[in-house]
Structure formats: C-alpha cells, structure tokens
Amino acid sequence: METIDAACIDAMAQRYRANFINSLSGYKSANLVGTCNEQQQTNLAIISSVVHIGANPPLMGMIMRPHTVTRDTLGNIKQTGLFTINALPVSHYANGHQTSARYAPEISEFDEAGFTPLWENDFAAPFVAESPLRIALRLEDILPIQANNTELVIGRIELVQVDPAVITEDGTVEIASLDLAAITGLDTYHQASPIAKMAYAKADNPPTPLQLFNADQ
Amino acid sequence: METIDAACIDAMAQRYRANFINSLSGYKSANLVGTCNEQQQTNLAIISSVVHIGANPPLMGMIMRPHTVTRDTLGNIKQTGLFTINALPVSHYANGHQTSARYAPEISEFDEAGFTPLWENDFAAPFVAESPLRIALRLEDILPIQANNTELVIGRIELVQVDPAVITEDGTVEIASLDLAAITGLDTYHQASPIAKMAYAKADNPPTPLQLFNADQ
C-alpha cells in the first residue's frame, strides 16, 4: 500500500486529481435525472451522486455543481420544483454516458443520447421510458455546501414505477434483477451480481445470511 | 411496471417502507467508518451513504442519523474531528454487516466483527487493516438536514492508502481490481465487474469506449 498525503493530492494536476478523488467513493449508482423548464424543454443528465436520505418521509438527495454541465438540470429543478430519477440499465450505459456531454440548453439530451421521454400522471417532469426503475420527486430543500460551492438537492418521492415482480415480501427491490449499471470514478461502467442477503445484525448473534446467491448468476 | 404513489408509500408498514425506499438508490459503496473517542475507545460502522462532494478541495460526505446505531460514530467525529473511510472488500462482507449490530459504546466493533485497527502517521482515528482502500478525513462541516433530522457529515481527505498498481495513468483508481463490495437496500451485498471505460463525452461525437472489459472477468 502506498500512502498519498494531502500535499501529494494538492500537487496533482487538475484532471488527474478529479479522476483520483472521484474514484474513492467506490461503486455508485448510475442514474438519469429528467427535468424540464417552464416551456417544457426537456433535459436529461447522468448523475452518480444520488444518496438515500431517509425512508419516512421518503427522501433522496444528490450533489449538484451549479457551474458545470448539470447547471440546466439544477436551473430546471429550481424553476419547476420537480425532477425524476431513472436508474440506468446496463444495456444503455453508453447512451447514459453521452448525456454528460455539454449540449446547448435548447437541445434535449433525450434526443441526442437516444432516450424516450415519458410523461406520467400529470407529473410535469419527464421520466425515461428505457429505465426499469423510475422515481418522481418534488424538491424539498437545497442545502448549500460552503466548503466547495456545491449543493445538496433533496427531493421527496411522489411516485415510483417498477415491475412488481422484483419487489420482495419484505419491501426490498431486487436491484440485481433490473440489470442496472454502477459507475466508478467519472467514466467506468459496471454490472453487478448479488452475493448474499443478510439478516438484521444482532450483537449476540454471528452474521447470518438469509439468502446466498450463485456467484455465476 | 406498477405505479406506486405517495399515498401507497405512506401506507406501507415501517420496516417494509424502509426496505423499499432504501432500495431506490441502487448500488451503493460499502464502507467502514472508523472513529474513536478522546479515550481512544474505537468504533467501526458500515455506511452505504458515502458520496463524492468534490475533488478540489478533496471532500467526501456521508448521511448520518444522530439517533440510530451510528450515534457513537457521529459522537466520536464531533469529539475528535477525525474519521476514516475504509472500503469493504467482498471477502469481508459478512464481517462488515456485523458492525451494524447495536453494541454498547464500550465495545469495539473491530473486535466483535473481526477487523484489525491500524494506526498510521499519527492520525488519531483507526483505519481498517483488512481494507484495500483507506481514507483519512478531517471534519470539514456538518449540515443539518431539517427535512428528517439527519446530517450530512463532510470530511476533507488528509491521506489515502491504496496499492499504487491499481492507480492508472489518468489518476483513476481501478475499483474493480480491489474486489470491493457494493450494497443494495439495507442488507444485500454484491460484487461487480467492469464493462467499459468511456471517453469524455462530447456533443459532436458518439459515445466512445476507451477500454472494453471482458464480461466474464
């Protein structure tokens, strides 16, 4: 193991440091964030910073950079108060990556990257038809992160679309059954397979699998 | 696809809803957070909410619940201003899960779950010897999330330990080479394999792989 200290990180070239630091958070879910402005101009952006905030009330968050390629997404969310999070399937990883290109605001990444906008239940932000796990959120709060001028955008879940066959008895969505992509760093896409579902951990019991999966599945 | 709306989510039993909503963020990195109090009583907690905040300055965050099993971790971070994030290898997924059991504050999860504390470079929080990717952080900020009384804990990276052979020319850490675990929901552990590393996306180019990986590796 090599030890890389703060001085060494400071001395890295900008792009090298971006790749290095972005890698340290390991596997991240690949999600497409769908928005539109008040003129219904749609926008789609791949995000790897979606994080669970809480189940009751049902909240999800994501880290946004106001001055980067996702500024249209953030602007739309601030205008309409609505956005969708659509899990990216492995089959569409290259399309998903393409949404990170810098398109002009009047160009829709849905068209350019090959995704189909889907409008549901009068919710005024577009879903992604190709996604097997679609979530509608209403803006709950935006927390400014002063340490680097980013923002934690928090949404409250209004609607979820998923195949009911992948929801297990205990409420868990079997993510592996949906063939979703995971991202590491800024640009590397992965597939994953389950090893084990574990019982709720207790201090006086050893770790106990509820289900073991075949490593080759 | 089934549509599950807010009323349906509200009506779920508490545990069912926790499983359901925790699933929606897809693949999450499995990390062990190492801390100690001012008496050097060590604590170790598995966390699936680590998120990249920014590369310059190098910042990582995690969502903490002040009134749950991770309250010792949060208390220690507030006391000492220091913590470590240690990526969980697939080989130790069951041990990692065991750290989520509710142990008394004077019991160290290092001992109970079978991990070895490692002290490095005078940094006053313990690393995990079994982890192939260890990060030391100094508390930068704690942002209260009023929507559900959780907190976004932000740390500034002071030190990283990793095998230099897995750092590529462009600074990326090849996470797949480290055999790290990913989590879905509250209790399911996964392994992952890379599909493709993509070139920086450009509006006037189609998506371009820089490297394609063997699906069976």
Automatic annotation (TrEMBL), chains A, B:
MF terms from GO for this chain are: oxidoreductase activity
Q: What is this protein called?
A: Flavin reductase family protein
Residue ranges of domain Flavin reductase like in the record = 28-165
Record's keyword annotation contains Nucleotide-binding: no
Its EC top class is oxidoreductase
E.C. code: 1.5.1.-
Sorted keywords for this record are: Flavoprotein, FMN, Oxidoreductase
Cofactor(s) it depends on: FMN
Q: What family is reported? A: Belongs to the flavoredoxin family.
Q: Which domain of life is it from?
A: Bacteria
Q: Which Pfam families match?
A: Flavin_Reduct (PF01613)
